[in-house]
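Researcher: Let's run the pair from yesterday's discussion. Sequence first, then tokens, for each.
Model: Starting with the first of the pair.
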Amino acid sequence: MTTEQVTRALFDEVMVPNYNPQQFVPVRGQGSRVWDQEDKEYIDFAGGIAVNALGHAHPALVAAIKEQADKLWHLSNTCTNEPALRLAKKLTDATFADKVFFCSSGGEANEAAFKLARKYSYDNFGPEKNEIIAFNQAFHGRTLFTVSVGGQQKYREGFEPVPGGIGHVPFNDLKALKAVISDKTCAVVMEPIQGEGGIIPADPEFVRGVRELCDQHNALLVFDEVQTGVGRTGQLYAYMDMGVTPDIMTTAKALGGGFPIGAMLTTDKCAPSLGFGTHGSTYGGNPLGCAVAEAVLDQINTPELLASVGDKRALFVAELEKINAKHGIFKEIRGAGLLIGAELTESWHGQAAKFLAAAREAGVMLLVAGPNVLRMTPSLIIPDEDIKQGMAKLEQAIAQVIEQAKAIEADSAA
């Protein structure tokens, strides 16, 4: 099959329709820019949904994958390997954790975290202590267990019966959590910033209260840092800014900079419950993935890069505020670091996809976080000039959507 024959139409012919990708087909990227089959250029504010933390084709990652590709690609977990051990040591040195479990994705990392939480409680307190509490609008993955812990009914619909022993309460509502947590609770699971739920940050007082309630009830605190981790918020992990330490943390997305890898991190207290044979992942600890992730961590976990995330956020917010001053389109701009959510005003609720499509036509790649929020998760090293140019394109797209709505309204009134 030649390149000319590969078009977006082929997707509808050969792929399961669980995705609805945009109409253009990217073929190459460099830094924070992407080019499609027609050689049209886009500024990338999406970052592969918080994955491409160092942009596209970063030389350090390209070098790491080329070097490792000449050595070992895969061994299975009947053997360990040098890249996995080096990466695990760097992760434990940089975080609260003592032990690491590697896997292939954020969903797998969360699956491992939830299994560990139940197994730890089973081992230490007995089978009755098995309940998991999570939060409405949370997102933790697409496996049956992780969509059950996630607090969005739309992802569970049609897949019932789902695993039991899982409850949900409103996010940032400590009183609601206090009302349901008990000595049967084995874990409370939360995102420091709800991503798919609309870029909703956890209140610091709420996070501290959750930690205290977990301690009172011998429950583990699980932080899902799949989207917030690896520098996204301006800290290596978001918990580092919250004055609270989880018992289990998951990380993926940016960890591989585009190569599929995930990890669950935990303490010496909890780790023994995942003893020999209790859990596994065929590709977990893959030498190729771990070599790339090690290069990612080396690049990102520096004071200079982490500090620059805040500066780039400030520029994004300033540009969004300029757009808002002109068009009055945003109700709130929220998030942390380069995890940015711009909620549309009520009159535009439900229409975020229109702005995403218009932005694409203008040459900038965006995301949504639900139907009401425009989401930006760009490279952590996106050049300031790319931010300014991308924002100019976004402003054009927003103006176009508004003008189209006015024209439709005028036609209706005529």
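Model: Moving on to the second of the pair.
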Amino acid sequence: MSSTRGSFGSKLGIILAAAGSAVGLGNIWRFPTQAGENGGSAFILVYLLCVICLGLPLMLAECVIGRHSRANTGSAFMVLAPNTNWKWLGRFSVLAAFLILSYYNVVAGWTLAYLYEAVTGTFIELAGTMTPGGANPFSVNFMEFVSDPLKPILFLVIFMLITHVIIMRGVEKGIEKSAKIFMPALFIIVVVLAISALTMPGAKQGLYFLFHPDFSAINSKVILSALGQCFFSLSLGMGCLCTYASYFRKDANLPKTAITVGCMDTFVAIMAGIIIFPAVFSVPGMEPGQGPSLVFIALPNIFNSALSDSPILAWLVPVLFYLLLVFATITSTISLHEVITAFISETFGPSRHKAAVMVSVSTILLGCVCSLSMGPLGDFKIADMVIFDFFDFFTAKIMLPIAAAFFALFVGWKLKIRPLWVELTSHGLVKFKGLRLFLFAVRFVVPVLILLVFLSELNII
């Protein structure tokens, strides 16, 4: 299998592609929301600790499984533990990636639609229609858009076609090349927007909120929220990094790659806070704990209000911000798509092109159902949730924690020490002195932390 599979052509490509699989809406949308709802600096302090204790060991575990098996996520466990029930773990993870991509592409379409609205000046026009005591036009605009039977689907299809073209071009010419374009562009936009945010009137308050240590604000709620954010921000349990690692070269330094990806992911998340909160504190009456509506309802209004004295910036900043969202989202859809495409192609035999078509068509169709569930299909519910919300709940709060926990347990208890040493040292080419600590983490620390996330997300604790 490994002789006919694609591979990344450079160490830079490995790092950027792996970082792209982690960086997504969880960093730019969910992180500021969680920080705003959980005390800012207190949340960030706990989050950084969670990345070290949960994120890095689990990312490294996925890398070990992927590179040592030289197989896609769905087949990796059949290679490493043949004739055992572990094979179902890989397929379970692929199913999770399929369901996630099916509803994630709906939100991906929203980011593209909002980029279009920012470019065409729709937000500036909406700001001019605001009246005291009247309905918020930004809220009305969002609700009318997501409930429309056609517009969200149009942008969903466009977004998935872009993803499809990249996947069709293969690992090196498609995934790696796109990562070398999207990720540097993403970092540049992040820096430009952060510099712009520092010129806003609320910059001092925003930075104080984010970075002033307040240890008294740390409680069980903040800890559990930080654990959950770490889990979802790093895309753990989806098999993306596992599949990508199967394309890594033998000399790729897995510990260094995991640390670099963790740092890049955290950098983007914190920079998103630097971009958003100075804007929030620049507008009277706005609060940092805006919740999930922050990105698509509050921020367009906030940007226009905070930058009303500069028409150019009032147009440019929203354009750059939603372009940032598009770049972050597409690197995630690419990695999710690849998990499924590689599994179908290498397990059932169709060419990569045919497998990619199957994945794109099926996820678009299921995505259309998820999108329509917020409009014409809104009355059809599963467990008292519309289809979109059910997919989100079932994958994020049930499937991913289960998959990630068993990834850690497999590496910690099933995989032998020799393969671990081979992968963590790149066949002896690099030094790795933390094997015992890593084993302790994946055997005990990571499963316990994931259990806490699992119980917290289900509101059991």
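Researcher: Give me one sentence on the second I can quote.
Model: The mean pLDDT is 92.
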